[in-house]
C-alpha cells in the first residue's frame, strides 16, 4: 500500500483506445490497494498542433504578452487528457477526479513557456486520495502568483509528475513512455545500444541535459533534489501484466553510487543537435568581460551551455559559447544591441550546424585517460573537435553536426557499450 505517481506521455494518451488502456493499467494499481496520482501529457501531436495554430496568427513576436497566450493555448492539451482519463477510469468503475494545474494548485514563477515550479499544495489531492479516488493532474502547467496559466517547457509533464511525487512524498514515480528505459545511447543511431537496468541520478542528469530525450532535464533535477525514486518504463506492455513484473521493469534511477562501482566507466553516449555556437572576436581581455557578455544573455533569460575563452594576444581574446538553437537569433540580437558597443567589437560569428556529443559515467571520477580515449576515437574517424567541456562525470565535445552519428557510433564502440556489463 503506497502512494504512487504514474506519468503517461503523449503516445500513451494518443487515442481513446490508448487512454482506455492507461485507465485499465491505473485501475490495476488502484485495486492492488495503492493510492494513485496520474499525470498525463497532451495527446500526441496536440501541443504541436496548438502551437502551430498560434504561429499562423502571430508568427513574429515573442514578448511576454504573446508568450502568456501561448501558455493559455498550449495548456489546453493536457486539460483534454485529464478529463478523458478521469472519464475512462470512471468507466472502469474506479472513482476518479481530474484537476488542471491552477486547481491543485501547482504554483510557478511567471516565465511563460518555461516556468519553474515553486511549490505544490497537496491538501485537495490528499482529501481525494483519502476518499478512495484516483487523482488525475495535468502535466506541463501551473499557475503564477497573479493567476496566469503557465507552462513548464516542452516535455514538461515529466517535471510535473516528479514535482507532484515530491510534494506528495510518493513512494515512487513511474514514467511510462514509448521507450522501455534508458539506453547506453539512442538505439536509432546505434542499433547495438543496450538498456541500463539502473543509472545513477547524476548520470541521468548529464544524459538528459545532453539531449537524451527520455526525460525532461528539470524532472531529473527535481528527482535529485527531493530524492524521488524514479523509474522509466514502457507503456506498451500489456496492461494486465503482473504488478510485480511491471514494477521491476525499465530503468531505475538510483541514488546509491556504490551499487554502480563495479560497472562500466562510461555508462552512455549522449548527443544533441539543439545548440548553436556564437563567437565574439577581438574582445578586450580584462576583468568583468565574461560577466558583461553572459550577464546580458542571462538577463534575456537565455541559458548558456559550453563556454570557451581563449588565451589572449595583445590584450584581445575570442569568446565563444553555445545556446539553444531556438535562442540563437535572440542571443545575437542581445549581443549586437546590448554588448557590442561597450566591448568595442562587432565581430559576432555564429554557427548553427554544430552538435554536442558526450560520454557520461560516474566511473570517470576514479579513472584517468578516459577523455584521451574519447579524443583518439574521434581522431581515428577524422572528426575535428571545436569545443571541449568536462565535468567530473562527463566529457563533451562540440563538432560539425554532419559527423554526429559517426561520432556516436565510434564512441559507443570505443567504450565497449555494446557488450553486456561484466
Ligand atoms: N505536451 C507537452 C509537450 O508536448 C508536455 C509534455 O508532453 O510533456 O511538450
Ligand atoms: Mg516526453
Describe this structure in words.
- This protein has 422 residues and is α/β, with parallel strands linked by helices.
- The protein has 2 domains: 254 residues, 3-Layer(aba) Sandwich (Carbamate kinase), CATH 3.40.1160.10; 163 residues, VC0802-like (2-Layer Sandwich).
- It contains 13 helices and 22 strands.
- The strands form 6 sheets. Strands 3-6-2-1-9-13-14-12 form an 8-stranded mixed sheet, sandwiched between helices.
- Helix 1 links the parallel strand 1 and strand 2.
- The longest helix is centred in the N-terminal third of the chain and has 16 residues.
- It is globular.
- The two termini are 36 Å apart.
- The model has no long low-confidence stretch (mean pLDDT 93).
- Magnesium ion (MG) binds next to loops.
- The site of magnesium ion (MG) has 3 residues, from loops.
Amino acid at each position: 500500500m503506497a502512494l504512487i505517481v504514474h506519468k503517461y506521455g503523449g503516445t500513451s494518451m494518443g487515442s481513446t483506445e490508448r487512454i482506455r488502456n492507461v485507465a485499465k493499467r491505473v485501475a490495476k494499481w488502484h485495486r492492488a490497494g495503492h493510492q494513485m496520482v496520474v499525470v498525463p501529457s497532451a495527446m500526441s501531436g496536440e501541443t504541436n498542433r496548438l502551437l502551430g495554430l498560434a504561429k499562423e496568427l502571430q508568427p513574429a513576436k515573442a514578448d511576454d504578452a504573446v508568450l502568456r497566450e501561448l501558455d493559455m493555448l498550449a495548456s489546453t492539451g493536457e486539460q483534454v487528457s485529464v478529463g478523458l482519463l478521469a472519464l475512462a477510469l470512471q468507466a472502469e468503475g474506479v472513482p476518479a477526479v481530474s484537476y488542471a494545474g491552477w486547481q491543485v494548485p501547482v504554483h510557478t514563477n511567471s516565465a511563460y513557456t518555461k516556468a519553474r515550479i515553486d511549490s505544490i499544495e497537496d491538501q485537495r489531492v490528499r482529501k481525494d486520495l483519502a476518499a478512495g479516488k484516483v487523482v488525475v493532474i495535468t502535466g506541463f502547467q501551473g499557475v503564477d502568483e497573479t493567476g496566469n496559466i503557465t507552462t513548464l517547457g516542452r516535455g514538461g509533464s515529466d517535471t510535473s509528475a516528479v514535482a507532484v511525487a515530491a510534494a506528495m512524498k510518493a513512494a515512487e514515480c513511474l514514467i511510462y513512455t514509448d521507450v522501455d528505459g534508458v539506453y547506453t545511447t539512442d538505439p536509432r543511431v546505434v542499433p547495438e545500444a543496450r538498456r541500463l537496468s539502473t543509472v545513477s541520478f547524476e548520470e541521468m542528469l548529464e544524459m538528459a541535459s545532453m539531449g537524451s530525450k527520455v526525460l525532461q532535464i528539470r524532472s531529473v533535477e527535481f528527482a535529485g533534489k527531493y530524492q524521488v525514486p524514479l523509474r522509466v518504463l514502457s507503456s506498451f506492455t500489456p496492461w494486465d501484466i503482473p504488478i510485480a513484473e511491471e514494477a521491476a521493469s525499465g530503468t531505475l534511477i538510483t541514488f546509491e553510487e556504490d551499487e554502480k562501482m563495479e560497472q562500466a566507466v562510461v555508462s552512455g553516449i549522449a548527443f544533441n543537435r539543439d545548440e548553436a555556437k556564437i563567437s565574439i572576436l577581438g574582445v578586450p581581455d580584462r576583468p568583468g568581460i565574461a560577466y558583461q557578455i553572459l550577464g546580458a544573455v542571462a538577463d534575456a533569460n537565455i541559458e548558456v551551455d559550453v563556454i570557451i575563452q581563449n588565451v589572449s594576444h595583445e590584450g584581445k581574446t575570442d569568446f565563444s559559447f553555445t545556446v539553444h538553437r531556438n535562442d540563437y537569433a535572440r542571443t545575437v540580437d542581445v549581443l549586437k544591441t546590448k554588448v557590442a558597443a561597450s566591448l568595442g567589437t562587432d565581430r559576432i560569428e555564429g554557427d548553427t550546424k554544430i552538435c554536442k556529443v558526450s560520454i557520461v559515467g560516474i566511473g570517470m571520477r576514479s579513472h584517468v585517460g578516459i577523455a584521451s580515449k574519447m579524443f583518439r576515437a574521434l581522431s581515428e574517424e577524422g572528426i575535428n573537435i571545436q569545443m571541449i567541456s568536462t565535468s567530473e562525470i562527463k566529457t563533451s565535445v562540440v563538432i560539425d553536426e554532419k559527423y554526429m552519428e559517426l561520432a556516436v557510433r565510434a564512441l559507443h564502440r570505443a567504450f565497449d557499450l555494446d557488450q553486456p556489463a561484466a
